[in-house]
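Weekly sync, protein design subgroup
Attendees: M.S., D.O., the rotation student, P.L. (late)

Item 1: inverse folding check
M.S. brought a backbone from last month's batch and wanted to see whether the design step gives back something sensible before we order anything. D.O. pointed out we never logged the input encoding, so this time it goes straight into the notes. Structure tokens as presented (495 positions):
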């Protein structure tokens, strides 16, 4: 499998990279188009060696030009090629028109798209839309996407699956579901979050010979999380060296959430984990996980001693939104301890006056871990609005509350004041109760051991998802439980 770059870019930044390559390095646009078409065709040959029939769907821009180059290469190698165009190809401009004319000069044939089209192909090349799509797909383009998706052929998308927004990862109505996507010049940030995982297939990348120094001239603040090596422990280390985590939550009937968070913190290496919960739960927790130090608390006054002993706080798992829950959250906030605010604590936080938030959620002291619904409440937005641009929203949450903001979901985003990281681990099996509680515990366990705030958030998200990936390799996605991650978490922090 190809090793992809770490840095991700917006479409505007990628256009700047391309412009610099053309004007500063003397690389023509048609040369870049030729290289792009070659990369797609090479990948097509590598993946589907026995293919004979190629169908290319071309739109109206430079992405269509890439498609015509692929068609030229396929013709020259003896494939049977059918090109279906959404526009009169004579109306193409610049390099795309040159690519079309080259294809025609090779005696290639072009058919105008129609909704009754019967596609015969082993492989379909999707060259309908490039990275500039910013509105819902309609009309014949929508019909073309549906025909591609209904086909039994393998699908390879040129630069990005048509219908997917390159900046946000959002499907603009409908999008091509590709088996693989070959993307150029730089990795688009929208390929790694939101809806993208269901549409891109395997992602391949080529810089198209754009020189490295060009990338230095167009900096990006978005990147993919890479796994970090966990150093071996010193032989003389004791439990106090590995920190003390306090998990607060567990309203009546919800004791499981704090237990999951507590065990996750222990499994990644926290030295001590205490739990503050309803008194009715303490005995049962001790029986099920004796390593947890469980305390019944009725109010924030009884929490004070526990807060003083701990160096990392998690509040929210199973917390509920009662007066008891709010009282405990305000005590945590006012303690100014290193804190992870999760689940119902986020819902309570969304109702606390902003002036109080600013007082206590100071930079570098807190991590917020909302899923889409919690993020919507924090920002007074609809969940639809949140998903329209996850990058923008996670940055707004970080700006409003300080510290680190984590927007969970496919392609979880981790925003600091300086940048945004995207985690590529995790799977649909994680859509089950308790996963978020385990994540909070993982991050807390890393913080307790001395990881900086940003590193703990990024690595916590990454290994949490990686543990789930290992678990589903063993037994599949359906039926995955948060507790199934525990042995894999331990393995990952000891590699």
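Designed sequence read out in the meeting:
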């Amino acid at each position: 499998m190809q090793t992809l770059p770490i840095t991700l870019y917006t479409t505007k930044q990628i256009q700047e990279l391309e412009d610099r390559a053309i004007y500063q390095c003397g690389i023509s646009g048609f040369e870049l188009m030729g290289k792009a078409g070659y990369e797609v065709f090479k990948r097509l040959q590598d993946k589907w060696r026995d293919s004979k029939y190629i169908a290319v769907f071309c739109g109206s821009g430079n992405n269509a030009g890439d498609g015509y180059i692929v068609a030229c290469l396929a013709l020259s190698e003896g494939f049977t090629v059918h090109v279906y165009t959404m526009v009169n190809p004579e109306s193409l401009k610049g390099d795309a028109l040159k690519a079309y004319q080259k294809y025609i000069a090779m005696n290639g044939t072009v058919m105008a798209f129609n909704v009754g089209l019967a596609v015969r192909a082993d492989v379909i090349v999707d060259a309908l839309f490039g990275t500039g799509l910013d509105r819902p797909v309609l009309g014949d383009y929508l019909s073309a996407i549906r025909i591609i998706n209904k086909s039994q052929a393998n699908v390879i998308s040129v630069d990005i699956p048509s219908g997917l927004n390159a900046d946000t990862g959002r499907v603009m109505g409908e999008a091509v579901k590709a088996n693989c996507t070959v993307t150029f010049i730089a990795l688009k940030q929208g390929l790694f979050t939101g809806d993208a995982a269901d549409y891109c297939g395997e992602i391949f990348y080529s810089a198209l010979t754009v020189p490295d120094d060009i990338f230095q001239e167009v900096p990006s603040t978005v990147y993919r999380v890479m796994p970090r090596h966990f150093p071996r422990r010193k032989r003389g280390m004791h439990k106090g060296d590995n920190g003390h985590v306090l998990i607060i939550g567990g309203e009546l009937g919800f004791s499981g959430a704090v237990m999951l968070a507590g065990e996750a913190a222990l499994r990644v290496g926290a030295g001590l984990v205490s739990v503050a919960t309803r008194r009715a739960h303490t005995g049962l927790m001790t029986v099920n996980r004796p390593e947890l130090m469980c305390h019944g608390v009725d109010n924030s006054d009884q929490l004070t001693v526990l807060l003083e002993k701990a160096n990392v706080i998690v509040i929210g798992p199973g917390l509920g939104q009662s007066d008891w829950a709010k009282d405990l959250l305000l005590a945590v906030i006012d303690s100014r301890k290193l804190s992870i605010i999760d689940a119902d604590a986020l819902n309570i936080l969304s109702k606390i006056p902003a002036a109080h938030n600013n007082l206590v959620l100071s930079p570098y002291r807190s991590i917020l871990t909302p899923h889409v619904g919690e993020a919507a409440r924090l920002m007074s937005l609809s969940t639809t609005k949140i998903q329209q641009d996850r990058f923008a929203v996670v940055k707004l949450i970080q700006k409003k509350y300080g510290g680190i903001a984590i927007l969970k979901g496919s392609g979880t985003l981790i925003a600091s004041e300086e940048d945004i990281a995207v985690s590529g681990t995790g799977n649909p099996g994680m859509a089950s109760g308790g996963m978020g509680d385990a994540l909070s515990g993982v991050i807390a366990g890393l913080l307790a051991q001395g990881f900086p705030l940003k590193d703990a958030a990024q690595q916590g998200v990454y290994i949490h998802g990686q543990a789930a990936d290992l678990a589903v390799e063993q037994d599949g996605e359906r039926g995955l439980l948060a507790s199934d991650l525990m042995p894999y978490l331990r393995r990952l922090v000891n590699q």
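Discussion: Residues 453-475 form the longest helix (23 residues). The CA atoms of residues 316 and 344 lie 5 Å apart.
Action: P.L. to compare against the previous round before Friday.
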